Amino acid sequence: MSSCPKLRIEGFTDAWEQRKLGEYIIEYKExxxxxxxxxxxxxxxxxxxxxTEYFDGNQIASKDNVGYNIVPYGYFTYRxxxxxxxxxxxxxxxxxNGIVSTLYPVFTTNNELDSKYLQYQxxxxxxxxxxxxxxxxxxxxxxxxxxxxxxxxxxMPLSVDEQKKISFFFSKLDDxxxxxxxxxxxxxxAKKYFLKNIFPSEGxxxxxxxxEGFTDAWEQRKLLDLLIQPITDGPHETPKLVEKGVPFISVDAIIDNKIxxxxxxxxxxxxxxxxxxxxxxxxxxxxxxVKSGSTVGKVAIVxxxxxxxxxxxxxxxxxxxKSAPYFLYFLLQTKGVQSQVLDKASNGTQPNLSMRELxxxxxxxxxxxxxxxxxxxxxxxxxxxxxxxxxxxxxxxxAKKFFLQNMFV
Length: 409
Known about the structure:
Layout: E1 2-3, E2 16-20, E3 25-27, E4 41-44, E5 47-50, H1 51-54, E6 69-72, E7 76-77, E8 81-82, E9 90-91, E10 97-100, E11 106-109, H2 115-124, H3 126-134, E12 142-143, H4 146-149, E13 153-156, H5 160-198, E14 218-222, E15 246-249, E16 254-255, E17 258-259, E18 266-268, H6 270-279, E19 287-290, E20 299-301, E21 309-310, E22 314-317, H7 325-331, H8 335-344, H9 355-359, E23 362-366, H10 369-406
Helix pairs in contact: 2-3, 2-5, 5-10, 7-10
C-alpha cells in the first residue's frame, strides 16, 4: 500500500510505503547490575528529564534499582501503560546513560529509519493513535508492550533523507516554540520580582527598587483615596440575556488579568443597559477586581471603548485625575493587596468581599502621579512583552498542529 501526505518537503516525490514497525526497531535489553549505576530518568509527556530536576531535587527511583532498564544516549523509552490511550515516546538526549524502571521499554531504530522522524510520527501521527485505542481490552488502562508496538504498520517515506528533513523541520519549529515559551516564562518571573520590589511592603516608606529620577518617600493611604468616586458594581439580579444587544460580562471574562469579551455572559437589551448605566457605566481605564466567587482577587482594566456592562461580582474603580489607572491595576496584583483580599473576604459557600471593606484597604503609594504613571507604564511594557511571546508561541503551536496533520499520512 502506498500513499502521499498533503504537504511534501521540496525535492521529494516518491510515494510513501506502509511498513511494519518491527522491521525497523531494535529492543535494548541491558539492565543495571548495581544501585545508582546511572542517573534515574523521568519520561513524561513534557519530555525526558533527570529525576532530580523533574522532582525539585528529589529522586523517586527505588533505592534498590538493580535491574532497571538502561537508556543509552539517542535511544527511545516510553511508559508501556496509559489511562487515556495516549503514549509519549521520548529520546534520551540529556545523559550518556540513564535508567528507567522496567515499566519503560527501551529501543532504537536501524539505519533505515531516522529516530527523530519516528518520534514525531509516533507522538503525533494518526496511525499510532488509532492503533493504541485498538489495544484496549476492557478496564481503564491501555497497554503497549514493545512486542505490540512492533506490530504497528506505519506509512512512511523510504528515503532516510526525506525522513531527516521532516524531523529537522519539526525540530526547528519546536525550538522556536521553546524559545518564546522560555522568554514568556522569564518575563513572568521578572514581573513577580519587580511587583515585589517596586511596591513597598506594609510598614515600609520606600520600595526596594526605584525608577530613575524619583526619590520622595511613599505615603500610606486608603484605596478609596486613589479614586474619584466610591467603588461600585453592576446589577445584583440575574439579567435576561438576548441574542443580540450590549455585551454583558462577569468573572468568567477575567482571564490572566485581561477582559476576554469572547467569554461574556451574553448580551442585554438596550433598555436594560440604560438601567444598568444609572448605577455604573463602564469607561476606558476603569479597573475591576473580582469581589466574589472562587476567583476573588482577579484584576482587569478596561482597554476598549466599545460599549458593554458588568454584573455584580465585579467591583469597579475609577481613578480620574487622582491617580494613574495602570498604577492601580498593578498595585491590586501585588501580594500585599491580594493578601488583604483573601483575609477580608467573608467565608461561606463562596468568598465575598465588601466594597466598603475594599475601599479601606491600606496601600502605600507615591505622592507623585508622574511616578505612578511611570510605574504603570513599566509594568504595562512587561505585560505587552509577555503577551507578544505567548502569542508567537501560540501561533507556532497552531502552525505545528497544521503541519503535523498534513505532512504525515
